[in-house]
Amino acid sequence: MRICKMRGGLMIGLAALLLCVSLAQAAPSRQQAIETVYRIIHQELRIRKEELQIRSEHFDDAEGYWTFSFQQQPHPDSDGQVFIQLKPDGTLNDLVGPRRLNEIALEEALKRDLRDPDNLRTAAGMYALKQRWQDRLPALGRMAEERLRRRGTLPWFLKEYRVLEADIRLPGEEMVPLSQAQETTEAAILALPGWTREKLGYFPLALAVYYHSAELGKPVYHFGFQQKRPAQGDPWEPFERVYIKPMEALFGDAFEMLPQYLSLRIDARTGQAAEAPVVGFLGLNNKSLLERVK
What we know:
Blueprint (H helix, E strand, L loop, with lengths): L1 H25 L3 H16 L6 E8 L6 E7 L8 E6 L5 E5 L4 H14 L2 H4 L2 H11 L3 H15 L4 H5 L6 E2 L9 H13 L6 H4 L4 E9 L4 E9 L9 H16 L9 E7 L10 E3 L14
Antiparallel strand pairs: 1-2, 2-3, 3-4, 5-6, 6-7, 7-8, 8-9
């Protein structure tokens, strides 16, 4: 029996080796690949071969993919960076063209605003954020459509920017006070099985916004409590020691398995919960806290 297993393992290993060899043999040569990428870049991006300098190249022996990155010269209005990858059969797998400098600046400003707690933790801050970005929303929409068309997926900030498309307002006097709505939210979370004030203490307030919910058809207060993040540039070890390890000990699970945030919408007219509390976890298809504003 042991000999059979060894032979079986040997045959599987030999088959995998032969597959890698066949992929490598089927893939285009470097000369063929470079000629192909120059042609595709000119067709798709209107950038000539003479304008490109190779920054890096890589051939994946196991998968048979050619990958190249180029620097365009000159590039006064963009970063000049081109990324292209060919499939083993020599056809295009991915192409990313130069990014316009004004788009880069717009993205960086959006990232900062969506990660600034002063914008997100108060209804007034969210209203001001909405007003500041109102005129730039069409440009963000075009950027998101183009990125999705070329890459098939969106980075976090082009998913979360849609929070700014919500009908964010300032609550009128006829609405219940925001503080009362927050107390109702915390009570609803603490009523969840296993939740305590100590556990909720690891999730500081991360979102407080008033808007007319298109999904619910009514004005709501929306509150979110989220895990802390280390400040940019801060070392990871102290954060892990004073926050992550105690949190893991309290919840009895690994950090990656713990909730990321808690979210609840409150009917702004009645002060009652408009839904059940949402407990968000890590996952490829799971929504972030800001993506739940709708």
